[in-house]
# Entry
Amino acid sequence: MISIPPLRPGDLIAVVAPAGMVTPAQIMPGVDWLEKRGYRIWLGPNLFGRSFQFSGSDAERLSDLQQALDLEEAKAIIFARGGYGTIRIAGLADFGKFRENPKWLAGYSDITIIHSICASLGIPSIHGAMVRNSMGPDGVPSAGFVRMVEMLEGKRGDYHTGSHSLNRNGIASAPVIGGNLSLLYSLIGTPFDLDTRGRILFIEDVGEYLYHIERMMISLRLAGKLSGLKGLVVGEFSEVKDNPEPFGMTVEEIISDAVKDYDFPVCFGFPAGHGAVNLPVEFGTVWDLSVDNEGGRLQNPEFQKEQTT
# Structure
């Protein structure tokens, strides 16, 4: 795994929107906060473009993404938002210069595609809050966005979750990968398909029907994405839908049933995803996962070193 230096005041951060449209009112408060923190910001020329639901045409969004990837001075790209559309341009982007001069990429949801590309290149990335959801209505940055920026600056993670009746006890130490379940499911068999062997998989989602969540989990199992896991961390599944005739299982029961034939630890209730709390996780690097009767713990091994220095 390639190492990327932490951000320092004065560094340049690029902000681009490879998927859904954004407005200045949604973006500029977060940009202003980053500048007050000491960073210089490069905004994609087409950031506020619009083509139907997208932030500009495919060509415009690709141009912004490519410029940001190639911009040697930029030390990080914080994506403006997710939505839908990254898959339309991801296969057209050239990651050659990025591979030679890697930088932090941070986002979630539709940005899962970018995380999968980073995983294939052996480059870490951060699953965390984006600029559009960075500030609250009171003008105060969200805890998740602050924590994500702190992680970009080198602060490691040490997270605890409460107990859950469907947790499966155990310990594991492995790189964490994953993201939005719908995106991971849609990437099976594509050039961006994720290799999950020997990894801790993180999943989350929003607005999905219960039966579709089961379909996706079964597809992951049939594709061999679950058999080689070292552990499973389940984030928030928000705004879950059901048909008039109830499906009959909760999200947690569906996921637990999909992994019942394996013996790796499973941690439910991790505070990350599309909900109010979205704690960042550095993908591609090793984390220690432990699950017992008291709950789960996901700790970056470097965190302990930070506490003793």
Summary: Residues 12-152 form a domain with the Rossmann fold fold (CATH 3.40.50.10740). The first strand starts at residue 12 and ends at 15.
